[in-house]
Amino acid sequence: MAKTKINPMLKMALEMGPIVAFFIGYLKLKDISFLIAGTEYQGFIIVTAAFIPLMVLSSAILWKLTGHLSKMQIVTLVLVIVMGSLSVWLNDDRFFKMKPTMIYLLFGGVLGFGLLRGKSYLKVVMEEVLPMRQEGWMILTKRLCFFFLGLALLNEAIWRSQSTENWVYFKTFGLTAGVFIFFISQSGLFQKYGEESKDSPDAAE
Fold first, then answer.
1. What angle do CA 179, 187, 150 make, to 5 degrees?
2. What SS3 string covers 135-194?
3. Residue 80 burial class via C-beta count within 10 angstroms: exposed 0-12, middle 13-18, buried 19 and up
4. Rounded to whole angstroms, what are the CA distances from 106 to 29, 81, 140, 146, 157?
5. CB 83 within 8 A of CB 75
6. SS3 category, 87
7. What is the reported pLDDT for 1?
8. Which residue from 32, 158, 180, 186 has the highest number of Cβ atoms inside 10 Å of its Cβ?
């Protein structure tokens, strides 16, 4: 299926909607316990159970509209399903809390493996939206690799030492803000090694 561009705001809503819904749901149900089939479940587990199909639905809609899901989106979806289901099945919130750790370890590990081979796997998935010389891609990949590994360690430290509520705030706002700030902080790198897109009007002249 060919890739199709959609409204950026709609794309953001589909990507961030489940996360926002999870956060709002947790705030409403965090102090409530539910007795289901003789087993008591805390609000966090109930919200996690609702988050899984919501994530699947939003990903399916995004794929239907664009004809494409990135490898990062697919891996994230799989881990949400696996770790979320384990938390619900075993009635243990630790599995879902470990999900960001696994995601960032996996991404950091893949980028690190590519660097050992002298390649930038980041370039493969981002070159279309961020034209840049090879040297720049290698520097950015190295920085992002260490950044992801740092986020994995930070997530472990937060969920193991802080309350569930603090972790939810960290996951919803801290991780998102961290990634945003990282890329903003690389503006100097983009300016130094950036190239004009082949699709841009100037490049065609």
1. 30
2. HHHHHHHHHHHHHHHHHHHHHHHHHHHCCHHHHHHHHHHHHHHHHHHHHHHCHHHHHHHE
3. buried
4. 31, 16, 17, 12, 18
5. no
6. helix
7. 52
8. 158
Question: Which residues, 6 or more positions from 94, have their beta carbon under 8 angstroms from its beta carbon?
Answer: 87, 159
- Kindly state the tokens that stand for 129: 């939206």
CA gap 166, 175 in Å, rounded: 12
DSSP states of 8-76: HHHHHHHHHHHHHHHHHHHHHHTT-EEEETTEEEEHHHHHHHHHHHHHHHHHHHHHHHHS---HHHHHH
Query: In the chain, which residues have pLDDT < 50?
Result: 198-205
Amino acid 23 reads F
pLDDT score of 200:
45
Span 143-185, pLDDT tens digits: 999 999 999 999 999 999 999 999 999 999 999 899 999 999 9
Q: What is the pTM assigned to this prediction?
A: 0.84
What span, in angstroms and rounded, lies between the C-alpha atoms of 96 and 76?
Answer: 12
Question: Both tokens of residue 39?
Answer: 């087993």
Could you tell me the maximum CA-CA distance found in the chain, to the nearest angstrom?
Answer: 71
At residue 128, the pLDDT reads 73
| CA dihedral angle for residue 188, residue 192, residue 195, residue 196, rounded to 10 degrees | 60
